[in-house]
Amino acid sequence: MKKILSTGMLLLLATSALAGESGASLFANNCAVCHGESGKGGVGVPLALPDFQRQVSDEFLYTTIRMGRPGRVMPAFTRLSDEEVHKIIDYIRTLSNVKKPEHDPTPIHGNVEHGKQLFAQNCAVCHGDHGQGGKGTGVTFSRPRDLPILAPALNNAGFLAAATDSMIKHTLLEGREGTPMNPFKNKKVSDQDINDIVSYVRSFQKDLKPMQSANESLTMTAQANDTLENVVENIKRAAVGRNFRIIRVQYLDDGFQPEDKVSKKEVIVYFCNFDLLNTALAIDPRVGLFLPCQVTAYEQNGVVKVTSINPKRLSHLFNNNELDKLCDQMYQMYKDILDEATL
Ligand code: HEC
Ligand code: HEC
Q1: Domain 16-207 is in which class?
Q2: Which ligand does the CA of 171 lie closest to?
Q3: Between these two residues, 86 and 179, which has the higher pLDDT value?
């Protein structure tokens, strides 16, 4: 399990260290699992679609990759460097040979109330009454690939930050051939009707909740006033008291440590609660990389410290609403165990 755990951490945290990686390889490592090889689509919408590429600017792609779609499956890629994000965008552009649009931030003004009625009649069936998107994404990876492409969430901070009014208008007029998103230009709707719908979609912005912070530190640490042995016993007691089973306690040899880390004794306590494990895996299998739970106690320069991963930071990496709640619970749980172990 330790091996799996560190591989997961490496994948999540050290991708940016792989300098010089090509756009194709960055796409294969970060995007293809959901968007399919060559952007043909999977859990994520097909990015190679000519209509899509004709409608979205490089700025749209940049913001989407950076912010993701909070609460949906699409993660926020904060750990990639700007250079890497631009390489990915250039690679996406090679998947289709259509001309990309210029970024056009000119606002479109329409009648929000009328747009709301038109939205209820024409869009809600797929995008949800409040633009919350089709059901099925944001929960599991198990959707078979041959199911229809799900409608993205439009009342979404990531979408609204990335999309300009002009991009939304073009998407409505032209649709996306090859997906359920049909063009509206052939229907009996006026240009003003389209502007009204665009204004309604834009109005979702005022109801958005602020995004969870990316500034959370990666680990939490507390300092103990006791011997390493006692602190390890305290961690075990605190975990068992919260219905966890201790799986393993691993002692790291002093000689194991790099020489610059003077006399650092380290003990890792692994524990698990199968209800929590199953709940987490049902929401998003990537959570499996961080379970079982583990708390590390170590002695450095005569001081004993206890440390764990910060689940709130994971929550940001995963960018999934349901997972946010679970990560908040796990955060509180780790915090209590750290507090109790260092009392
Ligand atoms: C039959 C289902 C369906 C209907 C009806 C529909 N859409 Fe869509 N829409 C989709 C799907 C599916 C996609 C994703 C297409 C893709 O893969 O690129 C989409 C994409 C979009 C996008 C682009 C979102 C993004 O993330 O880039 C916008 C904007 C949009 N729709 C707005 C609307 C509006 C407004 C209406 C009503 C006027 C509407 N749609 C009607 C299914 C639908
Ligand atoms: C864990 C799965 C997953 C990964 C990994 C992922 N995406 Fe997505 N992506 C999605 C889903 C699902 C959507 C649709 C959002 C929705 O349903 O509201 C999406 C949406 C998008 C969109 C908006 C499409 C549109 O129609 O507007 C872009 C662009 C995008 N992803 C690019 C990327 C890139 C580039 C990467 C890699 C750096 C990536 N994604 C990685 C799942 C993923």
Answers
A1: mainly alpha
A2: 1
A3: 86
